[in-house]
Amino acid sequence: MRTCSSTSERHAPLDKALPVNASSQTPPSDAALVPAPFRRMLAAEVIGTFALVFAGTTAIVANADGGVSHVGGALTFGLVVFALIAALGDVSGAHLNPAVTLGFWFARRFPAARVVPYILAQCVGALIASLPVRQLFPDAPTLGETIPAGPDR
Question: CA-based, 20 to 30 A from 33: which of 106, 116, 117, 145?
Fold first, then answer.
């Protein structure tokens, strides 16, 4: 049985950049300063967060019309997270959420240098996922937003 290790143990550190061309005297581009494995990790976080937000938000908005039950919405989130951890866990750790990234950092299981890029990648994935959901549901002004109930509403 394989044991799980933290992402910081499995991937190269950030300061080990891949050279663009060893014989070239020109300085490397910004893309070359980020190692390829770390770019794959960030891309996995963008794709994973996109899938989670797209599927989850779509299920919640569809439930507003009674198309999906509360159980269906919960299953959507649970199964998507399960599939993403299985598919992306070995690439990026499948954090999929800034709270998870911060939790790993606070627990000292994730390097501080990777926290901000991970959170930015997750925010990009979530924002990109919201665009097609907005197009699919133009009549849903809040896209499943939780609105507090109370006397002011």
Answer: 106
